[in-house]
Amino acid sequence: MRRPPIKLNELLKRFRAILPSERGQAMIFAAILMPTLALSTGVVVEGGQVYVQYRKLQAAADMAALIGAQKLPCATTDTTCISTAESQACTYAVNNGFAGCVAGGGSLTSADVPPVTCSPYDFIDYGNDNYGGSGNASCKSAASPPPYYDYVETRLTYSVTNIPIFNIPINLYAHAVAKHGTFSGGDFAIISLDPNTNLNIYGNATVITGGSAFANGGVSGNGKNDLACNGGWFAANGGVSGVSTDNNGSPIFAPTGCTGSNDTTPVTQSNLPQLADPWKGTVAPPTQSGSFPNCTECQSSGYWYDGSSWNQGGSIGGHGQGHTYELFPGIYSSLSLGNKDTAIFNPGVYTFTGGIDTNHGNMCIFGSPACSDSTGWCAQQSFSDGSTAGGQWYYACSPYGFWDSNLAAASGGRVPTTPPTFYNSSVQLNGIVFYLPPNAGGITTHGNGGKNGDVYLAAPNACPGTGTFTGGSPPAVSWPQGDASAQYTYSSSDYAYQAGYTQSPASDLIYPNSDFTLLGECNNGLQVWNGEQPQPKHLHFLFWVDPTGNDSTMNGASAQQMTGAVYMPGSVLSINGAGKGAGGPPWIHGQLIVKSASIGGNGYVDVDYRPCGPRYGSCGSGLGTQLIQ
């Protein structure tokens, strides 16, 4: 008799019956694995915290090295420069929560110039190699030490003590080595672009720079008073000779000089790569073609008032000596002043198709305190960077001004009552730009203390004042920050008072920030016209001179002070006699950029601009500052 087939589920039951029981084994496995899982989780969590802290430490070391590198290069004997770079790196580290950094300490928590760590690269000398008995004997051998230190190292440590699972402290370590950036056009007060011509200083000429000078040719000083105060002299194709430097003092322009003493060995360097035109790529003011929506009057013949009647375009001058002209933006054939004439400019862009000849005349911007200096105080008072006297000068003699809406309203519709603005903003212009198109004939200035010739001009400045009103007699506005609140009050003898203004309409039109260092940049990106600057900067153009047919000459002694960029990339500039700031500030507070320049006779050239020195920061503020290790 056949047995009935066994069903599948019954078969499974029988199979399970012969197997041993597994009840409770899961709990045993869990009990065994739980500590391991907890330990693994703890390792992951705590390890992640340690890694995050390490990344913060390394990022701080990297940035501290980059900050310190902004102060390089330093001459190997320049202990002040070296200490500044080390201190700045440590300050950044401490401010970001990593205490204990010692400038020049050579320890595990320090910033050092040159680095303590040996260079791992055969082609890079950190400045600490083994130079036959000097340097670091542990590093590779090299023939001789470099003249400059180009590298800084930061080494930081941090103790992570809150590790509950391990109950042991973990010490983290990070280091970074950075090199200063490449030379940039933004580093130099004077730039001579022609590689085949020296920047030539001869006779009894004196050149004082607050900052540095660079020539794509060479630099030929006269061995007398050619001084870079807080800076140096640099050249590409030629050598550097007959110049001196003072990197211990601050510029003083009345009398011209520097508060420190001359360096035993001048800060000079030659055989450098050529420096490109820092403003290459800028677009000329669109006064004769293109669009200028923020200053439509800049594209038409300009209107000017001679005290009794209105005129349009043509040549300014021709009314005899001692005449006053007030100009509004536009196109003119030429500016040709007579002896003791005064040209007063309202903010905007001025095109002179036949050049500029000041011929012992005065020039200033409407409403600027310097424009009403009937006592000669601006030309006589001492001025030094950052001093009380400098602040007082800046309050009483600011070169910035504003739009004369009273005269504009009385022009019968010739001139708009509202002023031009910056191209990409509603912010009012507070300075001027002189534009010389191709073959205009260049610029000729004549100044003589007995025949006037005073010039106080300023380029537009979009950086508002950040300083405070400090009082005094005369009241002082902090220099270089300007003032954020004080307004200038005119006396009855001032031109602005006679034009109907007892007080300036806005403090930031007259006292904008004049700090042209990298730290002083307001970075608001404002331009006077579209394409004015490829990368908008604080410093705007005072003179934009086309490279063709505009060689220029500046002669005579007078109180001449110009703030902004004097941009003449194709012009040969000859300076004879004195083009100086007299008793006030430097002749140019900004940059002088020329094809080539020769300075002779008893000429004075005082140019004050940013870095290349311990006070503001050194060369290498341009692109290229980078981490090496």
Would you mind describing this structure in some detail?
This protein is α/β, with parallel strands linked by helices. It folds into two domains: 32-179, no CATH class; 212-620, no CATH class. It is built from eight helices and 37 strands. The strands form five sheets. The protein has a 23-stranded parallel beta sheet that branches. A five-stranded mixed beta sheet has the order 2-3-5-6-37. The relative contact order is 0.13.
What is the helical fraction, as a range of percent? 10-25%
CA-to-CA gap between the ends? Answer: 92 Å
Structural class, by secondary structure, is alpha/beta
Content of β-strand: 25-35%
Rg result: 33 Å
Largest sheet at a glance? 23 strands, parallel
Total domain count: 2
Q: Compute the average pLDDT.
A: 82
Number of helices: 8
- Which residues form runs of ≥5 with pLDDT under 50? 612-618
Shape: globular
Number of strands: 37
Characteristic key phrases:
about 625 residues; alpha/beta; 23-stranded parallel β-sheet; five-stranded mixed β-sheet; 8 helices; about 25% strand
Q: Topology, please?
A:
Layout: H1 8-18, H2 25-69, E1 74-75, H3 79-95, E2 102-103, E3 110-112, E4 148-149, E5 151-160, E6 170-179, E7 188-192, E8 199-201, E9 206-210, E10 212-215, E11 219-220, E12 227-229, E13 233-235, E14 240-241, E15 244-246, E16 251-253, E17 256-258, E18 268-269, E19 303-305, E20 310-312, E21 315-316, E22 324-327, E23 330-332, E24 334-336, E25 342-345, E26 348-352, E27 356-357, E28 362-365, H4 377-380, H5 388-397, H6 405-409, E29 432-436, E30 443-447, E31 455-458, H7 495-498, H8 507-510, E32 541-545, E33 552-556, E34 560-576, E35 588-600, E36 604-608, E37 626-627
Parallel strand pairs: 2-3, 7-10, 7-35, 8-11, 8-35, 9-12, 9-36, 10-13, 11-14, 12-15, 13-18, 21-24, 22-25, 23-26, 24-27, 25-28, 26-29, 27-30, 29-32, 30-33, 31-34, 32-34, 33-34, 34-35, 35-36
Antiparallel strand pairs: 1-4, 3-5, 5-6, 6-37, 16-17, 19-20, 19-22
